[in-house]
Amino acid sequence: MRENVVIRTVSRLAVPFIQLFGLYVIAHGASGPGGGFQGGVAFAAAFILMIIAFGIADVRKRINNRGIMIFSIFGIALYAAVGLLSILYAGNFLQLNVIEAALGIPHLHGILIDIAEAGIGITVMAIMISIIYDMADTGGESA
Amino acid sequence: MIEVIFDLFTSHYNYWMAIILMLIGLYALIAKQNLVKKIIGLNIFQTAIFLFYISFAEVTGGTAPVYLPEGAEALYVNPLPHVLILTAIVVGVSITAVALSLIVRIYEEYGVMDEDELMKVVRER
Amino acid sequence: MSIMEQLPVLLIIGPIIAALIILAAGWHDRRLCYPVMLLSITGQFIASLVLLLQVIQDGTIRYYLGGWAPPLGIELVIDSFSGFILSTIMLLALLAIVYARRSVEAEVPAEKIVSFYVLVQLLIIGLVGMTITGDVFNLYVFLEISSIATYTLIAGTRSPRSYVAGFNYLIMGSIAAGFILLGIGYLYVATGTLNMAEIAMLLPASYELSTVHAAFLFLMIGFSIKAAFFPLHLWLPDAYTESPSAVTVIISTVMAKVSVYAMIRILFTIFTTAYIIESFPVTEFILLIATIAIVAGAILAIAQNDLKRMLAYSSISQIGYIMFAVGVANQIALEGGLLHILGHAMMKGCLFMVAGLIIYRMGTSNMLELRGVAGTMPISCAAFALAGASMIGIPPTIGFMSKYYLVLGAFEAGYWLYAAVLLIGSLLAAGYIWRFIEIAYFGDHHHKGDQTTTPEGPISMIAPMVCLALLCLILGIFVEMPMEIIGPAAMILLGGI
After folding, report:
1. Which domain range does residue B40 map to?
2. Which end of chain C, N or C, is less surrounded by CB atoms within 10 Å?
């Protein structure tokens, strides 16, 4: 791949901001527009930008296939755990107000929604990166 | 007569546009030979349906469904279709990903992207 | 008891967690996948039986996700119809998984086995979700989960032709899903709700609106593609033929039935008989198409030389029988149709298992190369004969009972001519089933080499096959057992209770 200083510098500058924006969208999911999926995609977009700018081998050093699998399992497990937690407190699946009532912590359901959204975000990010990896793996030598 | 048709078009132009866009996508999906173009057609087709949902969620003068200081007094657009379409977009992305990876494998195996040629090659083997 | 109340949602969440465990276990050791899978499907099967018993005892079960009641939240509904379909598909899924182990080892590349099981689990989650959801948009989401899993599973063999079959199905399936999504949109415009029961309640006020007609047509076309109802069946033969045998068993029995289930749900629960018979009379049209499907599917099946492809075309014909019941739309015919859903799932599952075992053993499914195969594989061919007899409708098999009810229903509604077509369909079925029987039993023996010295296949493949073949016979004799649940189910569909 041909070196391109402008692209590399700009993406190096942009990546942290894109990731921060992704985290903001995830964290904002409970009380405003946003949520796990959008945030996860925005977060993964930063990785995709890095793949385009620095090449796939460089990104693979940071997050490999094993990492992706662990992230995606961890994300869904987090979501399922929040949902099942409410069953433990004799509510229905994802009925978060029963947990809040049982523990007596104000705004707990918002926090729990954020945890569930973070789980979704982690999974979406991992899956998005794995789609790109998969395409790059099978697509011959172009990547 | 012309006026009636014109009225019908202008009063529901968002639906007309969604349907026209959908038909463009469907045409590409059926008539295009290149497999990647078929997938682009599929995306146009799905996007048209998303637009249809978003357009009927619109309330005249409504604002984005974010809780305002006025509370329930403020006029909001219907947020439910937005949420539904968010889910549908996720589905669309997944389908596109599966379709593209299938195309990549078909191309690796047969070396063609064109549907007619692909059928020819498949039949020969 | 709390766990009993939570059972509907655990039926979906449990397998999702199981899918994650399969993925993690597969990373550690590939051999661990299968036991986890078997355990989770067995658990689901038991849960579905428990739910069915609960429905029989206490009536419809409703579960509100997150504790939000219907207009706001999503509900899961298990009535006798969905309970019946649920336990049918879980029984078939369990047997298919038992069967899958050796078949998958032979047909799917080793490095893909982990993802294969994860995808099968996701497919079953999607189908279970479609069966028990009470929300139309949720139905769409689960439909897409199962579809995406299917596209990938079909493309999972070593043969590159399966990629093309998977891609073609993806195109057809996505168009269908798009139509369904659009239809749901129109329904939402007309009623302002997505809950099935609420839509059914609010819809009569706007039966004359063209919005509702459009919604109905889009949903009908979409689900017709998904269920491979006659003129929209073109994806089916390739998809069934090229996919791995275990996948063919699952999609031909479980998935096809759930698509038909969803269509019947839409027709009878959401639009109700008042709409499809009086306001927008389509039942006669469905009946006409169904009879064409029965005859055309059977004739196309006779013309095939490949065993799996022949069975695939036969599926098109059999879907016609189920839609025939929808077209007649009275109590007896619907009972016959629902019984045929169970019966066809069992016999077609058995026949595809035989086809898979023949491929496993003989390496081909071309019937011209299978002369005298009964000498080498007596049990399989006997199972084929038994399930085939059920397919033709020879008493006392379950296939006979369902067709008997269908004919009775058609007589009651005064459709004499259509009832005659049912019998012609049976004769044509005899044509294609007999063709294989003749080749298998009376063809020249080419395979004398390894005759009877070796067992004809792994026991894990033979057992589910024999089990299904015997079930075709036993449930045909003791037909009151399934009828006990089918009767109320048909009554619910027709608006009773």
Report:
1. 2-124
2. N
